[in-house]
Amino acid sequence: MQFLNGITLLLVYQLVGEVTVRLLGVPIPGPVLGMVMLFITLWIRGSTPESVETASTGLLSHLSLLFVPAGVGMMAHFSRIADEWLPITLALLLSTVITMVATALVMQLTTRWLVGSAAKEEQNHE
Amino acid sequence: MNDPGLKDIWVYLSASPLLGLTITLVAYGLAYRLYLRTNSNPLANPVVTSVAMLIGLLLLTGTSYNDYFEGGQFVHFLLGPATVALAVPLYQQFSRLRQLWMPVTISLLCGVVIAAGSSIWLARIFSGSFEIQMSLAPKSATAPVAMGISEKIGGLPSLTAVLVVITGITGAVLGTKLFEWIRVKDDTAKGIAMGVAAHGIGTARAFQVSNQMGAFSGLAMALSAFATALLVPWLVDLLDAWIPA
Q1: What percent of chain A has pLDDT over 70?
Q2: Which pLDDT band, with edges at 50, 70 and 90, does A104 fall under?
Q3: CB distance A67–B79 less than 8 Å?
Q4: Rounded to a whole number, what is the distance in Å from the CA of B141 to chain A's nearest CA?
Q5: B93-122: per-residue pLDDT in tens?
Q6: What is the dihedral of CA B9, B14, B19, B20, to 10 degrees?
């Protein structure tokens, strides 16, 4: 019953998110807004209900699985990708590497500068 | 398939979502076992191996993607509630998040601009067509956002969806090794970089490393969805002024 209650709540938040996005015409996906709303609810409430925790752990423990059907969609675009494989491969690969390295370094440096070593100490003790 | 009984069964199965759903779960089950066998080597990412297995199987049996997706959509649908569920680990990291909001904001904005700017610029250098450039621009955002942006700036939304998945896989496969090379050790920094560059697939990988890395990756994915939607159309105009297409 816990799992069922939890998943129902997640779907309700998703639904509210989808409806709000459509009503306001904002260019973000409904589930992302639903996530923000759930986060705010948990913050106000001050704790996570067991049902929501059970359902979220269940869904997130195999998040990778959920991307498989979209990934198989690659087969529908084989010819387009084959036509321009060089710019696609290089741009995608290099851009992803650059983004990752730059973001990680900026995050590391700004954390050191702005939050200082106290936070670092605390994290190491966790 | 000369036996009429078998043929009937095949006709039934190929028209029902049962087969597509079952093979998705079986392929993932095998892929995940392989991944554990290799001691969670990122090169054996379960998304890569199960997608490869399924594409191979569909090509061999001459099944179309649309027929497969009849069943695959049930798994695909769960991406919605799973995105909402990311609020939970994020809330559990709340105290850490409150401490780090400033670095998180700065690195997020840098990451989003670099992700979109560099992919347009690189595609332009390697003489990719305008459609490819615009389809690549939102590649680091989560699929539904990326498709919307792609359409707005002149890309092909369905191609963008595929590029988004490939980007996520690339990030998930290379991420941990890259962080090792540049000596970034904080799970918070690794998580933010993973989520900004490789959205949900990167987040799935981040959760395999640690709960903290997963939570920050999920946060970065959600916030960069907002930032990408707001910044990319503007960035495209700016880039056009700087480097003519």
Answers
A1: 91
A2: very high
A3: yes
A4: 11
A5: 888 888 888 999 999 999 999 999 999 999
A6: 180
Q: Are A52 and B88 in contact (CB under 8 A)?
A: yes
B174-209 burial, b at 16+ Cβ within 10 Å, e below that, comes to: bbbebbeeeebebbbbbbbbbbbbbbbbbbbbbbbb
pLDDT per residue over B143-191, tens digit each?
877 887 888 888 888 888 889 989 999 999 999 999 999 999 999 999 9
Q: Which of B84, B156, B170 sits opposite A31 (nearest CB)?
A: B84
Model confidence at A25: pLDDT above 70: yes
CB-CB neighbors (< 8 A) of B193 in chain A:
99-101, 103-104, 107
What is the C-alpha to C-alpha distance for residues A33 and A12, in angstroms, rounded to an integer? Answer: 12
Residue of A nearest to B51 (CA): A72
How close B89 comes to chain A (CA, Å)? 9
pLDDT tens sequence across B20-35: 999 999 999 999 999 9
What crossing angle do the helices spanning A30-45 and A2-24 adopt, rounded to 10°?
Answer: 120
Contact between A72 and B72 using a beta-carbon 8 Å cutoff: yes
Six-digit token pair at B235? Answer: 């960035």
pLDDT at A99 (0 to 100): 96
Pairwise CA distance, residues B52 & B23, whole Å: 12
- Among candidates B88, B142, B166 on the partner chain, residue whose Cβ is nearest the Cβ of A48: B88
Contact B225 A29 (CB under 8 A): yes
What angle (nearest 5°) sits at the alpha carbon of residue B162, between those of residues A26 and B80? Answer: 45
Q: Is A107–B75 a contact, with Cβ atoms under 8 angstroms apart?
A: no
Q: Which residues contact B206 (CB under 8 A, 6 or more apart)?
A: B175, B190, B191, B194, B195, B213, B214, B216, B217, B218
0.90 surpassed by pTM: no
Tokens for A87? 């710019």
Write down the H helix ranges in B16-45.
17-37
pLDDT at B1 > cutoff 80: no
Contacts with B159 from chain A: Cβ below 8 Å: 77, 80-81
Do A74 and B162 lie within an 8 Å CB cutoff?
yes
Q: Is residue B239 scored above 50 in pLDDT?
A: yes
Q: What are phi and psi of B38, to 5 degrees?
A: -90, 20
